[in-house]
Write a structure and sequence with these properties.
Blueprint lengths: L1 H17 L17 E2 L7 E14 L10 E11 L4 E14 L8 E14 L1 H6 L7 E14 L8 E14 L4 E13 L5 H11 L8 E15 L5 E2 L2 H6 L15 H4 L1 H32 L18 H13 L10 H10 L13 H61 L15 H13 L10 H10 L13 H52 L7 E3 L9 H10 L9 E5 L8 H21 L6 E5 L16 E4 L1
Parallel strand pairs: 12-13
Antiparallel strand pairs: 1-10, 2-3, 2-9, 3-4, 4-5, 5-6, 6-7, 7-8, 8-9, 11-14, 12-14
């Protein structure tokens, strides 16, 4: 019994997962549930014929007691709603018992008249879906078991148990089933042969008041009579019953803004691009921070570049990379090599003197200068990645703006149909202007009538008062049809317009809130880039140029923000002596110092500004070389 309960529970859990399917959800992805209508008591009633096998088990049955016997069943059932039903039926035919050590081999008749309480967990957990192929329905059952036991007084015993009813849909009216159940019952009803065997072996008292089990697996065909399936209550009819002008049943309507597939897709896309651009920006910030742990704001490498090297030696490596040019031993004299070796002996490896010049060049490059250059390149790339991420955040604003604009069209449409007090305007009705105005006046000033609750006298009075707006056949309509006409033609327009206004305002607020988040993200991204200043008071030029381009000018303006505009300054212009002729470099140094001095005056500096070109061999930094194409404020 415990094993069977465990199997049923496991199958039930599988059923929950299996039942999660599309087709029974609304536009927002939520499971659609009742209420449901049922016109007749005989709707969703079914009859079922089953056939299969059964076996019995009980204490003292002896070795080899599992014997399969044929079984059949007939059921009459009804579903009271998509989740719960009741089934009455008969199951039986026979049981077979033959212990190995006994000569007994007989078949006993078996009858079980039962009632089953059915629970459709597929509908319960995932919502009703008429076209679902497979429904899982656990149930509990109880009834009376009857069999022939010659020589014993009791032929009928109460039985109960659990089952799993697998309902397979072929059409709305016809289906198949796989029904697995076990029944616990007093073991006296296991059959005449069992009782004789147990009595002969252990005495009659040995099996009294003990349980036996009848388990079965049946395949069946079921046919629905009456109406098959369920219909959800029509929200328009629900809204028409007793809805007052001051309290319309708006919960039954979904605003056009929420139903519009284009708007919902655009809102989802905007959410995605804002989130992804924020993520890209945060990743770029993390990469830049990590790169900054190896290279400072002036582009000089830090000792952390050299992993696996003790702190003192790493500091020496960093100083060499930052302030000395990479030596080329193949072009140095013997005296120059000896001098260099002596001044750098604390960083040189064992066997240095025995290395050939090419090997020394390779060691210096790979050990000191290559890691430094790689770190500088990584930080430069990280800076570009941060700029790209900022641009992605900025670009996300376009999608946000599109969502705002589309949401606004729904707001405008609702405003065209309603005034500020939610009174419907004649423009909402697709009829001629005079009739539309009458419809609007009724919807705004009168409660929605419910003809099913009105007397004939009240109905005649209402029709007479509104005869100029009613069709000729209105009098012949049933009360329900009158309700439907009034709601569909007069009140539904107001219900829907108010729902549309609320939905449009909600969607617009969502879009505007997202835009606020995007602008905040952009502000943070801009601040991150503003904080990246190569060196305070330093401006960098393109090779051969003495005027900033647009980007260089913007960075230079950031670099002077902290300066006192009333103080006196000297502007030193530098050139990269590794490129260009001496004459050209002299000209660039002079022009760069004068250009930046002029810019300072143009940007509100009132102190004395002195241009001072650097000497021919004077450098701003030794490494990297490109930073000598600069002008420095001191």
């Amino acid at each position: 019994m415990k094993k069977f309960i465990s199997i049923v529970a496991s199958l039930a859990l599988c059923a929950v997962a299996f039942a999660q399917e599309n087709g029974n959800r609304d536009a927002e992805g939520k499971i659609v549930r009742g209420p449901y209508t049922q016109a007749s008591f005989f709707d969703n009633t079914f009859i079922e014929i089953q056939g299969g096998v059964s076996h019995i088990s009980a204490r003292d049955m002896g070795i080899g007691n599992l014997r399969i016997a044929p079984a059949a069943g007939v059921n009459l059932g009804k579903w009271f709603n998509p989740n719960f039903g009741l089934r009455l039926g008969w199951q039986g035919l026979s049981t077979t018992f033959k212990p190995v050590e006994s000569s007994l081999n007989d078949v006993s008749p078996y009858n079980y008249t039962h009632a089953d309480f059915l629970v459709n967990i597929s509908n319960w957990f995932s919502g009703y879906k008429q076209t679902r192929v497979w429904d899982f329905v656990p149930y509990i059952h109880a009834g009376w078991v009857n069999t022939t036991v010659t020589g014993f007084n009791t032929l009928n015993k109460f039985g109960m148990g659990l089952g799993l009813y697998n309902k397979i849909r072929i059409t709305d009216r016809v289906g198949l089933s796989l029904d697995i159940r076990t029944t616990a019952v007093d073991n006296l009803v296991m059959g005449e042969n069992y009782c004789k065997y147990a009595e002969a072996k252990n005495g009659r008292d040995s099996f009294g008041e003990k349980l036996g089990y009848v388990s079965s697996a049946l395949i069946g065909v079921n046919v629905n009579f009456g109406k098959a399936g369920w219909e959800r209550v029509n929200p328009t009819v629900t809204a028409s019953k007793g809805a007052a002008a001051s309290g319309l049943n708006l919960g039954e309507y979904i605003g056009a803004a929420k139903k519009d597939a284009k708007l919902q897709a655009l809102q989802a896309k905007a959410d995605q691009v804002v989130a992804s651009s924020k993520k890209s920006y945060e990743q770029a910030v993390a990469v830049y921070k990590k790169a900054s742990e190896k290279v400072d704001a002036d582009g000089n490498v830090l000792p952390t570049v050299y992993e696996g090297v003790d702190a003192e030696l790493a500091k020496a490596y960093a100083d060499m990379a930052n302030f000395e040019e990479c030596p080329d031993f193949t072009s140095m004299t013997r005296i120059e090599k000896a001098t260099w070796d002596k001044s750098h002996k604390e960083i040189l490896p064992e066997g240095w003197k025995k290395m050939k010049d090419a090997q020394k060049n390779q060691w210096i490059l790979e050990t000191i200068y290559a890691p430094a250059q790689n770190a500088i390149d990584e930080k430069e790339q990280a800076k570009h990645q941060l700029a790209d991420a900022r641009n992605e955040v900025k670009a996300a604003g376009k999608t946000c703006d599109e969502a705002i604009a589309l949401s606004q069209t729904f707001v405008d449409d609702a405003d065209r149909r309603l005034d500020a007090n939610n009174n419907i305007l004649a423009a909402a009705y697709p009829v001629d202007a005079a009739l539309a105005q009458k419809y609007a006046d009724i919807a705004n000033t009168e409660a929605c009538p419910d003809f099913t609750q009105m007397s004939k006298k009240q109905t005649r009075a209402w029709i007479k008062a509104h005869k100029d707006i009613l069709p000729k056949e209105f009098k012949k309509l049933t009360a329900e049809q009158k309700n439907d006409w009034v709601v569909d033609n007069i009140y539904a327009a107001k219900f829907q317009a108010i729902a549309d206004r609320e939905a449009a305002a909600e969607e617009l607020a969502k879009a505007q809130a997202r835009k606020t988040v995007q602008l905040k993200n952009l502000e943070e991204a801009n601040k991150s880039l503003d904080a990246i200043v190569e060196s305070t008071g330093v401006g960098y030029f393109t090779i051969g140029k003495s005027v900033f381009n647009e980007k260089q000018l913007a960075n230079w303006k950031k670099s002077i923000k902290a300066y006192d505009k009333t103080a006196d300054y000297t502007v030193t212009g530098y050139a990269d002596k590794e490129t260009g002729t001496p004459a050209l470099n002299a000209k660039l140094r002079k022009e760069r110092s004068e250009y930046v001095a002029k810019l300072l005056k143009e940007n509100g500096f009132t102190g004395t500004i002195t241009p001072a070109p650097a000497a021919a061999n004077e450098k701003f930094v030794n490494f990297p070389i490109w930073k000598n194409r600069s002008a420095v404020i001191k």
